[in-house]
Design brief:
- The radius of gyration is 22 Å and the shape is elongated.
- By secondary structure, it is an all-beta fold.
- It is built from no helices and 30 strands.
- It has strands at 2-3, 7-15, 21-23, 27-35, 41-43, 46-48, 52-54, 59-62, 66-68, 71-73, 78-81, 87-90, 95-97, 99-103, 108-110, 116-118, 121-126, 129-138, 143-145, 153-160, 167-170, 172-173, 181-187, 195-202, 213-229, 234-242, 258-262, 266-274, 278-284, 288-295.
Length: 296
């Protein structure tokens, strides 16, 4: 099926079938149902304003923007964002994808107030996902592929921790640099109901002046860890923070640096191993913001 203009649904049901559906003008669903089958769908904008949208069980390729105000059913399929300018996900309803692939060097932005979630594979072929104040949520079944220094999550990455997990990598950075966090768990994670959010921010912590850090001897970056849902069986955790050489003040000496955790005030935490661009902290039981630097 080839639709040269926009496919508009004002009621009824559109069944995509088993062949390729090339809908070059985008999909506007004001009401009714879109039902995908095994055939791929290729389109520009997707606007799900009402009704239900069932994705193909294979692939839907989206070169424009995505808006979901209603019900999206992933149908165990894959959604590929493959535009040539930055693409946006908006809408009043959170979208839960099965497999999500980004193949756009200019990235994908969560531009509204709703989170998105992935339960299958999150694949980075090109570009970054910019979350803003929203969360990219990975369920405990999710995996991440294709991450590199130019392909990662810029913003909030919230992962549900799989049962029996021992190590989790948070593939995060800012708009320019990939600066991930690795979490090593102590204890036995007894269920997959707990979640942990991570993000990183360029620049010294805004409360640095209330700490003992020397302002011109720091790593000009901090990381935030937030526990929304209790992780069952967790006793403590170690965290390894990655940064880039350009984050380090010229006067700073990493061998003299400590790590402070800010959560209703500052506390120096146990430092582990370090390299020229990583710093480990040990035996943590709480969460907050983490700053690296020399202290007075």
């Amino acid at each position: 099926v080839s639709v040269l203009g926009q496919l508009t649904l004002n009621g009824g049901t559109y069944k995509a079938g088993t062949g390729l559906n090339n809908i070059s003008g985008g999909i506007l669903q004001n009401s009714g149902s879109f039902i995908g089958a095994s055939g791929q769908v290729s389109t520009s904008n997707v606007n799900i304003l009402s009704g239900s949208f069932t994705s193909p069980s294979s692939i839907i390729q989206v070169s424009g923007n995505w808006k979901n105000n209603a019900a999206f059913i992933h149908n165990s399929g894959e959604v590929i964002f493959n535009g040539t300018i930055n693409q946006n996900i908006t809408g009043s309803s959170s979208t839960s994808f099965n497999n999500l692939t980004l193949n756009n060097i200019n990235g994908l932005t969560l531009a509204d107030t709703s989170d998105i979630a992935v339960g299958g594979t999150l694949t980075f072929n090109n570009g970054k996902i910019y979350t803003g104040a929203n969360d990219l949520i990975l369920y405990s079944s999710a995996t991440v592929a294709g991450v590199s220094a130019s392909k990662y999550v810029s913003g909030n990455l919230n992962k549900f921790i799989p049962q029996s997990a021992t190590t989790i990598l948070y593939e995060i950075g800012d708009s320019t640099n990939y600066t991930p966090v690795t979490i090593d768990f102590t204890g036995t994670i007894s269920a997959s109901s707990g979640s942990l959010r991570a993000s990183t921010t360029v620049g010294d912590h805004p409360q640095l002046s209330s700490s003992s850090f020397i302002s011109n001897r720091t790593v000009n970056r901090y990381w935030s860890l937030t526990n929304d849902n209790l992780i069952p069986g967790l006793l403590s955790y170690n965290a390894t923070f990655d940064f880039v050489s350009g984050d380090i003040d010229p006067a700073a000496t990493l061998s003299n640096a400590l790590v402070g955790k800010f959560s209703n005030g500052w506390r120096i935490v146990n430092r582990g191993t370090f390299t020229s661009t990583t710093m480990q902290v040990l035996a943590l039981t709480g969460y907050g913001d983490f700053q690296i630097g020399e202290t007075a």
